[in-house]
Amino acid sequence: MTDHPSLLETERAMRAHVESLGLDFEAGLAVSSIYRAANAVRSYAWNELLRPYDITWTGFVVLWVVWIFDGMETRHAAEAAAISKATLTGVAKTLESRGWIERVGRTDDRRLVELHLTPEGKRLMEEIYPKFNAIETKVVGQLSAGRTREMTQSLRQIVTTIEETGLG
């Protein structure tokens, strides 16, 4: 076995370890596949696009969230980026030091801070997001439009289930 087991090797190892436990193996495979797919896309996007810009995946997600919502309170930005507030603080400082983001205190409540893209941050996102979308197109390129829509609906249902049941 190599240092990086293939998808099939991982599934075989998983089956060998959990099959005798009487668990829902198909559910385990599904969630494991979601995890592996997300990590594969993240790694590919970082290597192909983000690394030359010296942007981490988390930094890109924060920029994207702040960009699409045209600014966002820090606690909501952390939640939307699926990171802790402490992690957001470090990421925001890095993005701010590069001139891409600014922290702005709220006038109605001085305890609250919003993140906004600077003009340079907006230019960066307008340059980088079409390239990111090309990666998105490439990674689903082997799927038909119907299968892509079906996958999207299934993944959205998983997210909705977690959100509606309070698991998230």
TrEMBL record:
Report the InterPro entries cross-referenced here: HTH_MarR-typ, MarR/SlyA-like, Tscrpt_reg_MarR-type_CS, WH-like_DNA-bd_sf, WH_DNA-bd_sf
Which GO terms of type biological process are on file? response to stress
Q: Which terms are listed as keywords in the entry?
A: DNA-binding, Transcription, Transcription regulation
The protein's superkingdom reads: Bacteria
For this protein, the record's Gene3D superfamilies field holds:
Winged helix-like DNA-binding domain superfamily/Winged helix DNA-binding domain
By its UniProt entry, which Pfam families does this protein fall under?
MarR
SUPFAM superfamilies for the chain: Winged helix' DNA-binding domain (SSF46785)
HTH marR-type domain ranges (all copies) = 27-160
**GO terms for molecular function, please?**
DNA binding; DNA-binding transcription factor activity
What name appears for this protein in its UniProt entry? HTH marR-type domain-containing protein
